[in-house]
């Protein structure tokens, strides 16, 4: 029963990281401006996968800052992901809970580890990329959750 429960947890999406991304963008017209700062931060929750700033996995990733965000900009943030379980995991990234929902039409988050596998105990350097559309409008503040999950292979 415990094995079945463990497998079910892994199958449903071994939630690796939930990071609340918060960014601010202000201009007189309510558009994202060239001077706006986008700051991402939030708590890290892990189940068999951890996120760390260093390859030795001693400094947990608890805050992400994408730096200056403006229309047409691309921002990258790198960190390490460690498989903290006992099974080979296939990694994936998703976003959810966009606020406002219209922000998701103008911004995309991707990473360089989609579909990659990570053996038990192994560590890999991952890079998140936030792309902001040149046509962004009507977004003054935004937030979303980043979910990095692993499923057993």
Outline the structure in words.
With 153 residues, the chain is mainly beta. Helix content is 9%, strand content 50%. The chain has one domain (17-135). It has helices spanning 2-11, 103-106; strands at residues 14-24, 37-41, 49-52, 63-68, 74-83, 89-99, 107-111, 117-118, 123-132, 141-152. The strands form 2 sheets. Strands 4-2-1-10-6-8 form a 6-stranded antiparallel β-sheet. A 4-stranded antiparallel β-sheet has the order 3-5-9-7.
List the helices and strands and how they pair.
Elements: H1 2-11, E1 14-24, E2 37-41, E3 49-52, E4 63-68, E5 74-83, E6 89-99, H2 103-106, E7 107-111, E8 117-118, E9 123-132, E10 141-152
Antiparallel strand pairs: 1-2, 1-10, 2-4, 3-5, 5-9, 6-8, 6-10, 7-9
- What's the helical proportion of residues? under 10%
Low-confidence runs of at least 5 consecutive residues? 1-45
The end-to-end distance, rounded to whole angstroms, is: 20 Å
The helix/strand order is HEEEEEEHEEEE
Strand content: over 45%
Shape: elongated
Oligomer: single chain
In spatial order, strands of the major sheet run 4-2-1-10-6-8
Task: Give the number of helices.
Answer: 2
Largest sheet: 6 strands, antiparallel
Total count of domains? 1
Count every beta strand, where a strand is a DSSP E run of 2 or more residues: 10
Mean of the pLDDT scores?
Answer: 73
Q: Determine the structural class based on helices, strands and strand pairing.
A: mainly beta
User: Using only CA atoms, what is the Rg?
Assistant: 17 Å
């Amino acid at each position: 029963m415990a094995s079945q429960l463990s497998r079910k947890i892994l199958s449903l999406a071994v939630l690796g990281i939930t990071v609340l991304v918060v960014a601010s963008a202000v201009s007189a017209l309510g558009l994202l401006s060239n001077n706006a700062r986008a700051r991402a931060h939030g708590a890290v929750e892990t189940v068999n996968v951890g996120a760390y700033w260093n390859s030795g996995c001693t400094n947990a990733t608890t805050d992400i800052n994408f730096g200056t965000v403006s229309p047409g900009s691309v921002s990258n943030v790198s960190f390490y992901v460690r498989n903290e379980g006992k099974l080979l995991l296939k990694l994936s990234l998703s976003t959810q809970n966009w606020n406002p929902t219209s922000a998701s039409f103008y911004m995309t988050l991707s990473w360089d580890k989609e579909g990659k596998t990570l053996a038990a105990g192994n560590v890999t350097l991952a890079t998140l990329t936030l792309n902001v559309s040149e046509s962004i409008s009507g977004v003054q503040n935004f937030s979303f959750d980043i979910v990095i999950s692993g499923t057993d292979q």
